[in-house]
């Protein structure tokens, strides 16, 4: 496989850099830690390394050094589509190189051969109550497939070796990336479309096949491609990526690590925010303007009521970003071209004007601008995916590209088991000089 050959070469180069840093510069200080960081969610502490993506607070995400517009422009496009191959984004994240069309198509073929979802996964999903949250089903489906892990087999058979451990990790990553869209679409059709599963079509790329299995016509294939590419990674400190890295550091395989990551993505302050946004906008339209597009005043009142009831405005703010999320802007561009008259899109656009000044006026919100979740739900809704509790599953399919690329690299570079040190409140008081 071209991907594996290129990756092997990159790994050997990167090992030299990491070994030199560790051996010769291991004692160089790169950060200091304050009490507010320790108590406040370890915010901003430089304590992880990844080359897959970097989040600049002012500029937003760069995938392997490329901005979102660059990624969209440079990655090979699916013939007949507006958007690039999702497979190309995985190739880029894993190797750091923009793939050629031939390289992407070879990877796409490889993934097609790995799509089949084990029957026992379907049985497990069917045994769950239909009103279980789709993220619960998604997470359960992933962990259930752990018996397929080639890394676990390799380890259990006593083959573990720091030089080769990345190879079965890559195998597992390819298997899981290929299966996640099938798992997601299976859950969707079982739960919301009267249990009518549409099988995978072998001649379609990952994004096109997902749209096909969801039963949604064009341009939803491009929506799926765009969505998965944009959600692929957001460096390594966010809850889902960090969780996967942490669990993987115990030499757990990708099925364990990624199901744990998905449990984190399901939290309302993380991936669930995109479902919260749509729910909140529906509530806004229902209560303020009889289902119509509200006026600016009605919008302001609703935002203020949300804040005074102690809730956050979903889709706004970020732990690292300090400007409008470029993933929001990329989706906004698509929406302006394809659904500019959609009433919910009109509300989303009005919120972009109304919310930031209100959040800024609170004086405590570090970033009053919208994040990715403020825009993604409306596009799904427009194309008929109105079951907003499914949106985080879409996020979870996309996020696998970056998180699993990271896990392969974690094994390739032999990163250690994670074990930060905890301290007690007594110790903090002593260091603070409190008698
Ligand atoms: N609405 C109201 N208050 C907000 C806010 C918002 N959208 N964003 C931040 N704040 C508040 C915080 O709640 C905090 O208040 P407190 O001091 O009374 O507890 C204060 O502003 C400072 O928080 P800040 O440092 O700006 O933000 P954090 O790093 O603590 O939190 C998140 C970041 C994203 C969790 C926060 O902005 C939030 O809750 N946003 C809404 C939910 C959301 O959209 N999440 C998705 C984020 C992302 F895209 C993803 O991971 O998927």
From TrEMBL:
InterPro entries the record matches: Citrate_synth-like_lrg_a-sub, Citrate_synth-like_sm_a-sub, Citrate_synthase, Citrate_synthase_AS, Citrate_synthase_sf
GO biological process, one term: carbohydrate metabolic process
Record GO terms (molecular function): citrate synthase activity
UniProt keywords, alphabetically: Acyltransferase, Transferase
Pathway the protein contributes to: Carbohydrate metabolism; tricarboxylic acid cycle
Superkingdom of the organism of origin: Bacteria
Enzyme nomenclature, EC number: 2.3.3.16
Pfam family, one: Citrate_synt
EC primary class: transferase
Matching NCBIfam families: PRK09569.1
Family named by the database record: Belongs to the citrate synthase family.
Protein name: citrate synthase (unknown stereospecificity)
Organism expressing this protein natively: Alicyclobacillus ferrooxydans
